[in-house]
Design goal:
- The protein is of the alpha/beta class.
- The protein has one domain: Ribonuclease Z/Hydroxyacylglutathione hydrolase-like (Metallo-beta-lactamase, Chain A, 4-Layer Sandwich).
- It has ten helices and twelve strands.
- A seven-stranded mixed sheet has the order 1-2-3-4-5-6-7. Strands 8-9-10-11-12 form a five-stranded mixed sheet, covered by helices on one side.
- β8 and β9 form a beta hairpin.
- The longest helix is centred in the C-terminal third of the chain and has 24 residues.
- The structure holds zinc ion.
- The site of zinc ion (ZN) has 6 residues, from β12.
């Protein structure tokens, strides 16, 4: 019936067009992962204007006094979408934000929630890295999401924890904020809920997509940090990217790949193989081909791991 109407009436056609646009709008996918705990799964692919730079996975905990949000998104518009998505699940206000990373989508939505009275909590080393890289991240964000990035106003945590492991009680929830070591990005941390054996790993864990070794990532340290997270014996891991899952999934998608990079590239260096030979030999790793971005990232990861390990010799 609507189609017939739309043919006859230009306004109906416009409305139908708007409906189609709305239907395609980017959404965060809520997934319940524990008692009053949810993951918000964003885009697995890249940052775009449509996804507000939310190509990561966030999460939240509902407690009697309000909501604790893990990561605030990359822009105020993204923060608004996070708020709307949470409002579909609970009417409680977002009262606390934990920043577990220094990359844009972990914290550049802070200003939106601070304007509504939320408190931002982070480790000192996370805030330090945010300050160090903010100009670079804003520049990059503008390239990906366009005008929306102009509304970003960097706001840092008002409650800074100067430790590498700290017990927090927010609302009535016990959370440990832990720095397990260096990894994907300086200042990355994890939020551990010991009572539920659930961990928000931030960018220490990439599920479903291949992790990226960047010039600022420290691959040997990252592997150690992953093992420290695994030693918590979590029941559920909410990753920095991709869908939540048990340790076995994170082990397969991230832990095994870090092992591969460090062990295989390390062996190539021990055998005096040069960079080109190493990349050619290890460039085909069918066991990881199921991960999204394998084609774009795998050879680059080998290349960067080689240069890091060689530089450390
Ligand atoms: Zn990330």
């Amino acid at each position: 019936m609507q189609v017939t109407m739309s043919c006859k009436h230009p306004i109906a056609l416009v409305l139908l067009g708007l409906w189609c646009l709305t239907a395609r709008a980017f959404e965060l996918l809520p997934e319940k992962v524990g008692d009053n705990v949810w993951a918000l799964v964003g885009e697995i692919g890249g940052r775009t204007a449509e996804n507000h730079g939310l190509n990561n996975t966030l999460g939240f905990i509902v407690c009697p006094k309000g909501v604790i949000l893990i990561s605030s998104g990359a822009t105020p518009a993204g923060a608004h979408l996070i708020e709307q998505t949470i409002a579909g699940i609970t009417s409680k206000p977002i009262r606390w934000i934990i920043n577990i990373g220094a990359q844009d989508h972990h914290w550049l939505g802070n200003s939106y929630f601070v304007n509504k009275g939320a408190e931002i909590v982070a480790l000192g080393r996370t805030v330090k890295a945010q300050k160090q890289y903010v100009a670079e991240h804003l520049e990059r964000l503008k390239r990906f999401v366009g005008k929306e990035a102009e509304a970003v106003r960097p706001v840092y945590a008002s409650r800074i924890v100067d430790a590498d492991r700290a017990d927090l009680t927010l609302g009535s929830v016990h959370i440990e904020l832990i720095w397990p070591g260096n990894g994907h990005f300086p200042g990355d941390a994890v939020a551990w809920l010991p009572d539920q054996r659930l961990v928000f790993t931030g960018d220490f864990v990439f599920n479903d997509r291949m992790l990226g070794v960047h010039p600022f990532s420290q691959v040997v340290e990252w592997r150690k940090a992953f093992k420290r997270i695994a030693a918590l014996e979590p029941r559920v891991l909410v990753p920095g990217h991709g869908f939540p899952g048990p340790l076995a999934k994170a082990q397969r998608d991230t832990g095994d790949y870090l092992d591969f990079l460090v062990e295989k590239v390390g062996k190539a260096l021990d055998d005096w193989k040069d960079l080109g030979e190493t990349t050619d030999t290890l460039g085909d790793a069918p066991q990881f081909r199921y991960l999204k971005f394998y084609d774009g990232w795998h050879r680059r990861n080998i290349n960067r791991t080689y240069l890091q390990l060689e530089g450390a010799q």
